[in-house]
Every structure is written in structure tokens, then in C-alpha cells.
Design a protein that fits this description.
The chain has 353 residues and is an alpha+beta fold. The protein contains nine helices and seven strands; from the N terminus they run αααααβαββαββααββ. Strand 6 and strand 7 form a beta hairpin. The protein is elongated, with a radius of gyration of 29 Å.
Length: 353
């Protein structure tokens, strides 16, 4: 844990140092101009203003290094500062090339203003991102709290009912039924524990995206796993082998949740079709089934079309995990249900290797 904190501090300090370096680069020439005491008063005033702004940038870098931003957020702020400096610097360079006589202290003062303004823009941008992240975390906590309490209460009632039947289970067949019920409840609790672990990992993760993962490879592995576990189910796959998406390790369990739900909620001979296409830099993955469909209240709350309350929070963590994985990877989740089955659509940024 100390190593993680040290890495975060190092990354945050490095990103913040970029802002301070801009201040140093702007301050030194202006200080030299002030020290010379040459030129009109207006020139000295302008150089003094540039020096003050440069010192503010140096101090801002130090404040960013100690702020509660993540290294990624601090780097984002530094990126805004670099963008503001580079764009205005290019404009001033073109003006100078055109023949205009621009004094160095004037250029540096203008650049200081632009850099400082873009640091402020970057901070506001990061605050907006953090507000969105906090809203998602509050949603996750609300779902976990209500859903886990609901499911634990249900499983506890099942165990109490099973315990009440034990004295009457005198013959071997009755004892076997009781044992099967206990085993089923234990498996349900174990699955709930695994999903809670994955939810907690998502909740505590600050960066989930990677440079790219092979979607075809992931889908093929998920399909093979479920064909082996459910021999009566048909899992058809139509995903190009070279298709990549900007995602990470959490994508596979999300797709597995969709396939698992489609199979176990179909009382007949389940058929699941997985298809993916790429268009305009985005990849759309569809998981279609011919089952009874996801209840409308659950679709609405997971799609954020309805608020979470004691009654409408969904009946399982599976869809919520998919929802949160899509949030982490800048993806979109849509659910279409009809008489002929359900289509769950995942849209993700593409990533060509």
C-alpha cells in the first residue's frame, strides 16, 4: 500500500512539475528584464505583471502536487496548461514571422496569462469529472446496500425454512432434498460473494482502461466456457478476430454475465447470439437471446431511466456489473426486450493495434 501511495505521489508530483516549469520559464526572462531597469515604465510594468503570473504558476504547481487529485487528473490539468501555452505560442510565433516586433517580455506575459487561465480550466474540468465519478460511486453503494440486504434476507429465509424441515427429514430421500436446498443456497451466497468482490474492485479502481484488448478472443473464450457448462445451450459467435476495443480485464466478466443471464433464465433450449461490428471508431457488441426477457422495471433502473429505491433496484448484481464496467470504459449500455427475446447492446471505443 505504501508503494502505491509513493507511486501516486510521484506521478502527481511529476505532472504538477510541468505547471511549475512553465512558471520558471516565464519568470526568469522577466526577472532579468526587471533587473536591467531599462526601457519605458510601461515595459517594466508589463514585465512585472508577467513575473507575478509566473510566480503564481510555480505556486500552483506546488499546490497541485499536494492536492487530492489522482495522477491522471493532475496530468490532465497539466495537459490543459500545455495546450493553452502551445496554441497561443503558435499564434504569437506566426505574428512574429509576419514581421511584427514583439518584445520577449510581452510574449512571456501573454503566455503566462494563457497558461494560468488554462490551469483554471483544467481544474474545473477535473472537478466535473470527479463529480461524475462520485455520483457513480454513490449509485454503486446504494445498489450494493439495498440489493445485498434484499438477497441476504431472502437467502436467510430459505435457510430458516430448510432448518425447520430437518426434524421431519427422517428418510434418506427427504434428507437428500434438504441437503440439495442447503447446497443451492450456499452456491447462491458464494456467487453473491464473488460478484461483491468484483463490484468492490470496480468501486475502488481509478483507472480501468487499457490501450486495447482483443474482443474476438474474449468472446470466443466466454462462448467456449458456457458451451462446456451448458451443453443444451447454443452460443453462436460472429465477432471479427482482429477487433480491438479500448477496455481492460473487467470486460470479460461483463460479457460472461450477459451470456450467463441469457442461458439460465431460459427454461427451454437457450440460444444466444453474440455479434460485433465496428463503425466510426466505435465497436458495438450485441448479445441476443430468445428467452423471456428482462423485466421492464429492472431494465429501467439499470438503464438509469428510473431512480433506485427500495423496490426498484434490480434483482441481481449481474446487470449492474455490466453497467459499471461500461461506465469505466466510456461505453454505453442499452437493453431492448420484446416477445422474441432480449438484445443487450454494448458500445465501446475501438482500439486498433
Amino acid at each position: 500500500m505504501n508503494g502505491r501511495f509513493a507511486d501516486d505521489a510521484l506521478g502527481r508530483g511529476g505532472a504538477a512539475a510541468i505547471v511549475s516549469l512553465f512558471g520558471v520559464a516565464f519568470a526568469v526572462p522577466n526577472l532579468l528584464r526587471l533587473a536591467s531597469l531599462e526601457g519605458p515604465t510601461s515595459a517594466l510594468v508589463l514585465a512585472g505583471l508577467g513575473t507575478v503570473l509566473a510566480l503564481v504558476l510555480i505556486a500552483a504547481g506546488g499546490l497541485l502536487a499536494r492536492a487530492g487529485f489522482t495522477p491522471e487528473h493532475t496530468l490532465r490539468i497539466a495537459g490543459w496548461a500545455t495546450l493553452g501555452t502551445a496554441v497561443l505560442g503558435l499564434v504569437l510565433a506566426l505574428v512574429a514571422v509576419s514581421g511584427a516586433d514583439l518584445p520577449l517580455y510581452g510574449i512571456l506575459t501573454v503566455l503566462s496569462v494563457s497558461t494560468f487561465a488554462h490551469v483554471v480550466i483544467g481544474v474545473r474540468d477535473v472537478q466535473r469529472i470527479r463529480a461524475t465519478e462520485l455520483a457513480r460511486q454513490r449509485e454503486q453503494l446504494a445498489v450494493l446496500n439495498r440489493l445485498v440486504r434484499h438477497n441476504l434476507r431472502h437467502e436467510a429465509q430459505l435457510l430458516l425454512g430448510t432448518a425447520a424441515r430437518i426434524p421431519d427429514a427422517e428418510d434418506r430421500e427427504a434428507r437428500g432434498v434438504v441437503a440439495d436446498d442447503v447446497e443451492t443456497t450456499a452456491e447462491t451466497l458464494s456467487e453473491m460473494h464473488d460478484r461483491l468482490d468484483r463490484s468492490q474492485a470496480l468501486l475502488g479502481r481509478t483507472e480501468n482502461r487499457s490501450t486495447g484488448v482483443e474482443l474476438g478472443e474474449i468472446v470466443a473464450a466466454v462462448a467456449a466456457e458456457h458451451r462446456a457448462d451448458y451443453p443444451d445451450a447454443t452460443v453462436a459467435v460472429d465477432v471479427p478476430a482482429d477487433l480491438q476495443v479500448a477496455a481492460g480485464d473487467d470486460l470479460r466478466p461483463a460479457i460472461a454475465e450477459l451470456v450467463e443471464n441469457a442461458i439460465v433464465h431460459d427454461d427451454g433450449s437457450p440460444r444466444v447470439e453474440i455479434e460485433a461490428v465496428e463503425e466510426g471508431g466505435r465497436v458495438t457488441l450485441e448479445v441476443r437471446d430468445d428467452g423471456p426477457g428482462i423485466p421492464e422495471p429492472e431494465r429501467a433502473v439499470v438503464s438509469r431511466e428510473a431512480d433506485i429505491d427500495q423496490l426498484t433496484h434490480g434483482q441481481g448484481l449481474g446487470l449492474w456489473l455490466v453497467r459499471w464496467v461500461m461506465d469505466a470504459y466510456d461505453g454505453r449500455l442499452t437493453i431492448d426486450a420484446g416477445d422474441s427475446g432480449t438484445t443487450v447492446r454494448l458500445e465501446l471505443p475501438g482500439a486498433r493495434g
